Amino acid sequence: MTRDAWDARFDDFWDGVDLDDSTGARARLEVLLAERGIDDARAAYERGSLHDSLGEEHAAIPLYRAALADGLSDDLRTQATIQLASSLRNVGDASGAIALLRAVPASDPLHDAAQAFLALALHCDEKPTEALALALRTLAPHLPRYRRAVDAYAGELVKLDRVRVIAVGLLVRDGSVLLESYPANARHGEFLRAPGGGISFGEPAAVAVRREFAEELDATIDDARLLAVTENIFDTSSGRGHEIVHVFAAVAASIVAIVFATVGDGVEVADAAGPRRLVVDLGHQLVWALLAGAFAVAAVRSRWGRISQTFAVAAGILYLLFLFAVFLWP
After folding, report:
1. b/e sequence 156-178, b meaning 16+ C-beta within 10 Å
2. Residue 330's CB: how many other CB atoms inside 10 A?
């Protein structure tokens, strides 16, 4: 069957699907995908779209990501991007949605649709003025009259003065601090900041910092201790900012493991040579690699099982060998 014929079959499915019957909808889609016989990016996209339509955004997100990573066809990539961004917004990751939607080029046929979802994401990210201005600028070209006026008034909207309350986590290891880099844009230059973000209404700061680490870094904070509450009043090219910042000392073993598995730990023994040099140079790094693997497996399986325990025990044995090489090697 040709590509166009399969497109028509999927269109028929979506035209007739009964979303009130989730079991029947899933069964119909799986029958159609089984008939097609290719478990590829298109299949992931269609499954993600169904989860999304049923209000199962958490299940849809990894399928959208897989479809985009596995080479989804150009005519569906923007749709997948918009739907992924919408799902991210619905689960609380407005900043992730904004990043995806800003990348949709003005030449794309779905650019206006992307702008509409971007306006929603900006509003959820506590940027109501920017959201309204964007919505008006996107709407203006389609108005029968007053296009220039609406576009001009959108450009004159002034950001509302407000105090932003955020929570950040300081993760320190051997004198190094984990920071996020925010690239330069039209409103500000590049800057670094500890991972974190805005505190939602009714959300305790300690809960917010854990949520932000999960959303931004896909990492779990094992412990968060409040260090200070600071106030920042600053000026940027887009206006004055005012922040109240809850600063937490964060402990996240999974992040530490990944960092040290990839960049090393800086431990050196000047007179080490031969096998001892090999153990010193690679031993500690392999320990963190094993621990990173243990945490990764536990995250995927949603439990600390036998495989994770095996990785952790191997890391412990290797660490003892590393200590022997550093302190006791004859």
Report:
1. eeeeeeeeebbbbbbbeeeeeeb
2. 3
State mean pLDDT over 275-281.
Answer: 69
DSSP 9-48: HHHHHHHH--TT-HHHHHHHHHHHHHHHT--SHHHHHHHH
One-letter amino acid identity for 41? A
Domain boundaries, the chain: 3-126, 164-251, 255-328
Annotation: CATH topology of 164-251:
Nucleoside Triphosphate Pyrophosphohydrolase (3.90.79)
Alpha carbons 297 and 304: distance in angstroms, whole number: 8
pLDDT band (50, 70, 90) for residue 258? low
Residue in 283, 269, 285, 292 with CA at minimum distance from that of residue 321:
283
Which amino acid belongs to residue 29?
A: L
Q: Domain 3-126, what fold?
A: 1.25.40
279-320 pLDDT, tens digit per residue, is 766 766 777 677 777 777 776 676 777 887 888 788 778 777
pLDDT at 95: 87
Query: Which ranges in 218-305 belong to alpha helices (H)?
Result: 253-263, 274-301
pTM: 0.65
Residue 254, pLDDT score: 65
| Adjacent-strand bridge partners of 165 | 244
Instruction: Give how far the C-alpha of residue 144 lies from the chain's centroid of Cα atoms, to the nearest Å.
Output: 40
Please compute, for residue 16, the number of CA atoms within 13 A of its CA located in the half-sphere on the CB side.
9
Residue pLDDT, tens place only, 129-180: 999 999 999 999 999 999 999 999 999 998 778 899 999 998 876 667 888 8
**Using the 8-state DSSP alphabet, how is residue 187 labeled?**
S
- Distances in Å between the Cα of 100 and the Cα atoms of 21, 57, 121, 163 are 31, 16, 10, 27
